[in-house]
Structure formats: C-alpha cells, structure tokens
Design goal:
Strand 5 and strand 6 (107-109) form a beta hairpin. The longest helix has 24 residues, at 2-25. The chain starts with a helix and ends in a 9-residue tail after the last helix. Helices cover 9% and strands 39% of the residues. It has helices at 2-25, 451-460, 485-496; strands spanning 45-48, 55-57, 66-76, 85-90, 97-101, 107-109, 117-119, 130-136, 141-146, 149-155, 166-171, 178-183, 200-201, 215-219, 224-228, 236-242, 250-256, 261-264, 273-281, 284-288, 292-294, 307-312, 316-318, 322-330, 337-344, 349-356, 360-367, 372-379, 390-399, 403-415, 420-422, 430-436. Strands 1, 3, 8, 9, 10, 12 and 13 form a 7-stranded mixed sheet that branches. The chain is mainly beta. It has 3 helices and 32 strands. The model is unreliable at 1-33 (pLDDT under 50).
C-alpha cells in the first residue's frame, strides 16, 4: 500500500513539474513575445568610433508600412556645439543610405560611396538632442524631427534605397567618438504626441501602445463633468480643452490616476468648450479620444426666474367699455407675499379698482392718480402658497380714449418663508389692448369735437341715455346708458386732439 501511494505521489510531482515548466516558458503581459529590436551589436546603445562611415543598423528591416523611432545623441566627445552623427535609414549592405547630419542639418545620401550627395535640409543637432524618424514606405517619404519639431518631409525614389530598409546611425568624421541610444518602441517614446496618424513603433511587437478612450461631458454651473472609458495600457490620463472645435487644445489636467473622471472647475458659464482626453504610459501619450462639447450655465435657483405677468381679458374695446387685467405669478415656488408696481396709460384708460382673488388679500394699495399703482398682497394660509401659474389679483379699467393702451408690471418683489426675491426686469411683463372709437360721431354729429359737444353733454349730465334727444344728439359717448363724467372726459380728450378746433390752431 505504501509503495503504491509513493508511486502516485511521484507521478503527481512529475506532472506538476512539467506544467510549471510550460507556464514559465509562456510570455506574460510584461514579457515580450518576440525579441526586442536593437542595433546589430545586440544593444540599443552604440558607440561609433572616429572612423568616417562607421555605422550601425537595426536587427530588423522593413519592407512596407509606416514606422516611427527615436535616437538620442547621448555623448559626443569632439564638440558640444554639434555632433558628427548621422541618423536615418540604410540597406542591409549599407551601400544605400539616407541620413540627417548633425553637424550642419544637411541630408547626406550614400555617404562613403562615390558619388554621394549633400543637400541642405534642417538645423544642426548636438549632444542631448532626440532625433525622431517617421518613415512612410507606402508613399516613399521620410520626416526627421529634432526634439519634437519637424524638419520637413522628404520624398525618395524606390531606386534610391531598396528594401528591406533598416534604421541606421553613422559617423561622418575620423575624429572623436559618439554614443547614440535608440528607442524603437519597447519603452515609451519621449515625443509620442508627434507620431503621425497610422504610424507604428519600429519595434511594434514590443511597443507600448496606448489606446483611445470614449469621452462624455455634462455641463453644470461653472463646471463641466467629464467621464471616459479606460484606454488600453494607460496608467494615467491628460484632459485637454479648447474653445473651438478641433483645437488647438491645452491641458486642463495631467496625470489623472486612479479614476476615469474629472471635473473642470475652471469653466466659465456661457462659454462653449471642446474636450478630448488622452491615455498616458510613461512618456507615451496615446491617441486623443472623441471630442465632446459642453457649455456651463448658471444654476437656476428657486424663484429667481419667477415671472410677474399681466393678462388683459380682451383684445380690443370701444371707448367707454371696461376690461380686466389679471396679475399672476409664474415659475414660482411656495410664494406667500408680493410687493409690486403696475403702470397703466392714464390718458387712455381709467383705473376703477382691484378685485381680490380668494386666498389672497391686498394689505396696501397706493395710487398716484397718474397711472402708477403699488400693491402689497399676502396669502391667507399655507394652502395658498403660489407654486404654479396663479392669478392672485384682478385690476378693473375703463377705456376713455382711442389708442393702444398698456398695463405694465414695472417691478416686483416676492417672498417664500426663507428668502425674498426681486423679479428680474425681463420677467416683469405687460399686455396691451386696442381701444377703438364708438360707432357714432361727435355729440351733435357735426363731424368734429368742439366746445359745443361738451356743452350739450353738460346739459344732459346725470341723465340716462334714454332720456336724451337721440334724434339730435349722441350724448352717451361711452355707451354705458347714462351721461356722466366719463362722457365729458372723453369729449375733452377728443377736443384737445382736434386740429380743426379753433383754440388748437
């Protein structure tokens, strides 16, 4: 029995050992699946001797595609003003080369061969500078960058450099030494933000590629809330903002870690903003997200948008007819007191008084007799707090002259049980009414209002319209079935506007 158990245990341990060995051999998330690209010396660092034409090329060449890499001039022992390094591309046999020269910024083709070309191109570079290369083999173009600044894009003929094409560095002098360090993409690029769209890291198999996020924005009061999806390989995020679509963008937040949201509290109400977010891993910044826009606005607080409205119950009346103007509050919440001023055109209408609405009482009414009224009104219990469109007072008027009359709520203050609020001028509304002439002419039917018309009505003053001589006179000018002050007031108004009345000439 013991021997059988021991044999089974031995078999188990053997299987476990094999499984562990297999798992150890598999690539992990941090273990490269393929050997990283280096210089052919087996390192990303190369020391070029003081022999003109000394070169180093990458272990892998490219036959098509769009590729990006960076090379740093780590050390130059001949001068600190420039470097005798050349950085560019080459064939495997190094007979066809295309390089950017540090000493003068020129492009040297086929250096070391006879003949070779030396053409002005960009600016010189020196120890400490980073030279980026963007090679587009699909369109036969190449662009060099010095510390992130493009030196311009050049075209080349396929016959000038055959495939496969290799990244290359070269020395152009027989004096001194120089050390250059390549980054083919296995570590974050220093100038990842300049990589043109569609380009891949030269060492794409081992590159850290930061994905793009999907961004959303919600506007608030002097703020914009931003949320986004996680980007592949991102360890932090940069939030960027512009005031025009498409940018240019500036960072409003960098190194956002631990979450995928951010609130921009520097936003100004009323200003449209355009946002993008980028994922970051080390010095590698990924592609920008979708662009979103948001315009922060001031929060609307209860009762600050309340409206004092005027609504006249008729569109038009004749002189002598009455009408009612309703006073109401709109967009209000739990309002229990109102103090407001109303203006009306006293030359066209006469104020006859106010009618209270059940649940609301007038505690003060001021009338300057010139067209301005002030009221202080309060609710009669908690059940009459105004929280919807509510008419709380009715004003009675009588038309006394022809024209377009207006009843206007000039200003107002309202209160709930905690605060008082002023009605915004734009929210103090008005209404108008058309006042027309009566169907008849002047009193004695002469076609013109004069002192004689006033004298006739003065004779009939106090009588019912039925008791006047209607065969000769239209004494009831305001058509209210009796002759009174309103008729005389109307006649005087017409006299004063009559250009044919002698005293007016």
């Amino acid at each position: 029995m013991k021997k059988r158990i021991f044999s089974q245990l031995s078999l188990f341990l053997s299987v476990l050992f094999v499984a562990v060995s297999v798992l150890t051999a598999l690539p992990t998330a941090t273990q490269a699946a393929t050997p990283p690209v280096t210089w052919k010396n087996g390192s990303l660092t190369t020391l070029l001797s003081g022999n003109a034409g000394d070169t180093e090329i990458a272990t892998v060449g490219k036959t098509s595609g769009k590729w990006y890499w960076e090379t740093t001039v780590n050390w130059e022992d001949w001068t600190t003003n420039f470097t005798y390094s050349m950085i560019g591309i080459s064939t495997n046999d190094r007979k066809q080369t295309f390089n950017y020269y540090g000493a003068n910024g020129n492009i040297l083709k086929n250096y070391g061969s006879t003949p070779y070309t030396n053409t002005p191109y960009g600016v010189a570079y020196k120890q400490g500078d980073v030279i980026s290369v963007a090679l587009d083999m699909d369109n036969n173009t190449i662009t060099w960058y010095k510390n992130g600044e493009s030196q311009k894009t050049l075209s080349y003929l396929p016959t000038e450099i055959s495939t496969p094409i290799y990244a290359e560095v070269m020395t152009a002098t027989s004096s001194g030494n120089r050390r250059l360090i390549a980054n083919f993409g296995a570590t974050p690029f220093k100038y990842a933000n300049i990589i043109p769209a569609g380009y891949l890291a030269y060492d794409q198999s081992n590159a850290i590629v930061v994905g793009a996020s999907t961004l959303k924005a919600t506007a608030g009061d002097a703020k914009v809330d931003l949320t986004w999806s996680e980007a592949n390989n991102a360890t932090s995020y940069n939030v960027k903002r512009a005031t025009t679509t498409g940018g240019p963008y500036t960072n409003v937040a960098t190194n956002v870690t631990g979450n995928t949201y951010y609130t921009d509290t520097t936003a100004v109400n009323g200003t449209p903003y355009f946002y993008v977010v980028t994922g970051v891993n080390g010095t590698t910044e990924g592609a920008v997200s979708n662009e979103v826009t948001a315009t922060p606005i001031a929060a609307v607080k209860p009762n600050e948008q309340a409206t004092l409205d005027v609504t006249i119950d008729k569109e038009k009346v004749k002189v002598g007819e009455g009408f009612i103007a309703d006073l109401s509050l709109k967009k209000a919440t739990n309002i229990y007191a109102e103090d407001f001023v109303v203006n009306y055109d006293a030359t066209l209408m006469e104020y006859l008084g106010a009618t209270e609405v059940p649940g609301y009482k007038v505690y003060n009414e001021t009338n300057d007799k010139k067209g301005t009224l002030r009221f202080i009104v309060a609710s009669q219990g908690k059940n009459y707090g105004i929280s919807a469109d509510t008419v709380f007072l009715k004003l009675k008027f009588k038309a006394i002259a022809v024209g377009t009359g207006k009843v206007d709520s000039l200003s107002g203050r309202i209160a709930d049980t905690d605060n008082e609020y002023d009605i915004a001028p734009a929210n103090a509304l008005e209404d108008t009414i058309l006042i027309e002439k009566p169907a008849f002419l002047d009193v004695n039917r002469s076609g013109s209002y004069t002192l004689l018309d006033l004298s006739i009505d003065a004779f009939y003053f106090g009588q019912n319209a039925a008791d006047t001589d209607k065969t000769l006179h239209d004494a009831d000018q305001t058509e209210d079935d009796q002759v009174g002050d309103d008729d005389l007031v109307y006649i005087v108004g017409q006299m004063l506007t009559n250009p044919d009345y002698t005293p007016n000439k």
